[in-house]
Design brief:
The protein is built from 12 helices and 14 strands. By secondary structure, the chain is α+β, with helices and mostly antiparallel strands. The protein folds into 3 domains: 46 residues, Uridine Diphospho-n-acetylenolpyruvylglucosamine Reductase, domain 2; 111 residues, Uridine Diphospho-n-acetylenolpyruvylglucosamine Reductase, domain 3 (2-Layer Sandwich); 94 residues, 2-Layer Sandwich (Enolase-like, domain 1), CATH 3.30.390. Helix 10 packs antiparallel against helix 11 and helix 11 crosses helix 12. The longest helix is centred in the C-terminal third of the chain and has 24 residues. The chain binds flavin-adenine dinucleotide. Flavin-adenine dinucleotide (FAD) binds next to strand 2, helix 7 and strand 10.
C-alpha cells in the first residue's frame, strides 16, 4: 500500500503549473488535498511519474464576490467553505454540503477544485455545481476556457479536463435573494460517501415555481443533471403531486450500481426520496415558511 516512485514539484505560481503540465502531459497529476489521489496512488490505480502540488499558490485559494458571480478558488478547502460568511449568506447549499463531506481532518485538506475535477460520481460538489449552474475555469498555456459543470463530466473519472489544463476557479452565478436551495444526502455513517443525494435550487413567484434545477450524486457514472425532474415542478405550486412527479423523474434518471451501499432498487428509491426532501426544504426556504 505504498505509491510508486514519482517526482514532486511545488510551484509558487499558476504559470509554473501550466508550464509543467504543458511539458509533462499525462505523466503528471495535480495534487490538491490529496484525499482522492493519494489513496488511488497507494492502490496503484494511479501511477503518475510527477506530482504537481498546488498548495503553495495563494492565487488559487479564497472565496469572493466578483460582480454577479461568486468565485471559489480551486485550492479552497471544504473547511474554508464551511467558514465562509459569503457562502453561508448567499449560497448556503455549499457549506451545508461541505459539512457532510468526510470528517474534519479530511475537510481541512480536501479542496473544492479537487472535488469538482476528480470525476468520481461519489463526490458531492459536482451535483451542487450543476444545480447552481456553475462554470469551471480551465487554464492551459494556450489560454483559458469556461466549461459549465453540466457539460464537464463524461463518465467515471472521465471529464473534459485536458492533461495540460488546470482548474483554477469555480464561478457561480450569485443566487437571487429568495432562491431556496437544499442538498439532501443519505449515507451509511458519518464520513461516508452518499448512497444517494440530491441538490435542488428553486425560485417561487406568485405562488408558482418560476425556476428550478435538480441534480443527483452517486446514482450514475457521473453526477446527473435532471431537467425532467426540474420540469415536473416548474410552473406548479410545488404541491404533493408535483413533488411526486419530480421524484419519479429523478428515479428514472438514476442508474446506480449495486455495491456495499445498497441494491440498485434501494439506491434508486433513495434518489427519489432525497429529491423529495430537497424540494421540500428548498421550497420552505424560498417561501420563508
Ligand atoms: C475518508 C474519506 C471520506 C470521504 N468522503 C467524501 C464524501 O462524502 N464526499 C465527497 O465529495 N468526497 C469525499 N471524500 C473525498 C474528498 O472530498 C477528496 O478530497 C476529494 O474527492 C478530492 O479533493 P482533493 O483536494 O483531495 O483532490 P486530490 O485528491 O488532490 O485530487 C483529486 C483529482 O483531481 C485532480 N485535481 C485536483 N485539483 C485539481 C485542479 N485544480 N485542476 C485540475 N485537476 C485537479 C487531481 O489531479 C486528481 O486527479 C472523502 C475522502 C476520504 C479520505
Amino acid at each position: 500500500m505504498t505509491p510508486g516512485v514519482f517526482e514532486y514539484h511545488r510551484p509558487k505560481a499558476v504559470d509554473e503549473v501550466l508550464a509543467l503540465l504543458g511539458q509533462l502531459g499525462d505523466d503528471a497529476k495535480v495534487l490538491a488535498g490529496g484525499h482522492s489521489l493519494v489513496p488511488m496512488m497507494k492502490l496503484r490505480l494511479a501511477e503518475p511519474a510527477h506530482l504537481i502540488d498546488i498548495n503553495a499558490i495563494d492565487a488559487l485559494r479564497g472565496i469572493r464576490q466578483d460582480g454577479a458571480a461568486i468565485i471559489i478558488g480551486a485550492a479552497t478547502t471544504q473547511a474554508e467553505v464551511i467558514a465562509s460568511d459569503l457562502l453561508v449568506a448567499k449560497c448556503s447549499i455549499l457549506p451545508e454540503a461541505a459539512a457532510q463531506i468526510a470528517d474534519p481532518q479530511v475537510r481541512n485538506c480536501a479542496t473544492v477544485g479537487g472535488n469538482c475535477a476528480n470525476g468520481d460520481p461519489g463526490n458531492d460538489d459536482p451535483a451542487i455545481m450543476m444545480a447552481l449552474d456553475a462554470s469551471y475555469v480551465l487554464r492551459s498555456q494556450g489560454g483559458e476556457r469556461q466549461v459549465a459543470a453540466r457539460d464537464f463530466y463524461e463518465g467515471v473519472y472521465a471529464t473534459v479536463l485536458a492533461d495540460n489544463e488546470l482548474l483554477t476557479e469555480i464561478r457561480i452565478p450569485t443566487p437571487a435573494a429568495g432562491v431556496g436551495m437544499s442538498y439532501q444526502k443519505i449515507k451509511r455513517k458519518v464520513g461516508d460517501y452518499a448512497i444517494a443525494a440530491a441538490a435542488v435550487t428553486l425560485a417561487m413567484a406568485d405562488g408558482r415555481c418560476a425556476d428550478a434545477a435538480i441534480a443527483l450524486t452517486n446514482v450514475g457514472d457521473t453526477a446527473l443533471f435532471s431537467s425532467a425532474a426540474a420540469d415536473a415542478i416548474k410552473g406548479t405550486s410545488v404541491d404533493a403531486a408535483a413533488i411526486d412527479a419530480a421524484a419519479q423523474a429523478a428515479m428514472a434518471a438514476a442508474a446506480p450500481a449495486e455495491d456495499l451501499r445498497g441494491t440498485v432498487a434501494y439506491r434508486t428509491a433513495m434518489a427519489g426520496q432525497m429529491t423529495r426532501r430537497a424540494i421540500v426544504q428548498a421550497l420552505s426556504r424560498a417561501t420563508g415558511s
